[in-house]
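re the bet — no i am not wrong, look at it urself. input seq straight from the record:
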Amino acid sequence: MIANLADEIVENLSNNEELKSLFINDDKYYCHKTLYIDNLNSYIKIVNEIGKMQRTEEVFLDRTVCYRGMENSKWKLEPSIIVNHLSEYEQSMYLEFECLHPYEFNNIKNAVDKIAKMQHFSLPTRLLDFSMNPLVALFFACNITDSASINENARVVIHIAENRGKENANNICKYALYSTKYITDYEEYFHKVYKLYRDFSVIQPMYMTQREIKQQSIFLAFPSKLRKGIVKEFYLDGIRRIDKIFMASNFISIIIDAKSKKDILHNLDNIGINKMSLFPELEYTGMYLKNKYKERVQVSIDKYDELIDYYAKLGVLNAVNEYKELKERLIQ
């Protein structure tokens, strides 16, 4: 009997001799099964096997499989509000954001969509980005935004989540959004409700931008911690982190070799997964085209350097000078 769906996926992948060889003993950062790849083909084979299980096995009907790309395999699986040590000011940030831009939230009725919109505009929240598309996650794993991650392996974290529905995540966010007084006013119900909505929950928000649609966004909502106190019986005590038991039974990782990230990005670009397609705003189209043509210029420069070196060794100075001139024109 398989203990959990993560183990079931691992067993299925292990039955494939080619994929079995990709498993590694790496629990340095996450205590769950991990695979190691250095090319796009291996990644696609893994996610295709997982997709086949989703389509053919009844046990997956009530599960969502989603993917998170992390450009540094050492990063923890934590939402931005924890990473930035701002959990204490969560309610204050949410309320101030809404007060400063009330017209932006007039038509948003539930807590998840409110907080998701704030996160879209860079406010740290308790929502952690995942994608329904494994290729989108792989792009974010290989796309370097932090110079400290250039020589680090990347990681795609696969989460096998129970479909608890929007109500669960919305209740998690409701208690995060509203003041402590809200909870006090409903104290007789609070403990009962907390018991129902204290688990991690995935939620697909209402898509408000083309970016969310392109990236097939889905969030993992982190619930609050509840502790027994001295003054009152129970009180909220920050945001719950993922523990080892939950991690081991609900996640699998794929590590991407640091040296392969650039090649994988080029391969993803060839099939339409790039910064321009995932970030449809005009500024990102400009960035994508700039980098695309800068790469072409660098290819030409490298070719001229090869030719200059080749003809210099032969002593053909006219050719050396000609290619040096072409190179200078290109640089200028």
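see?? The chain is about 50% helix and 15% strand. told u. also Residues 282-314 form the longest helix (33 residues). so pay up
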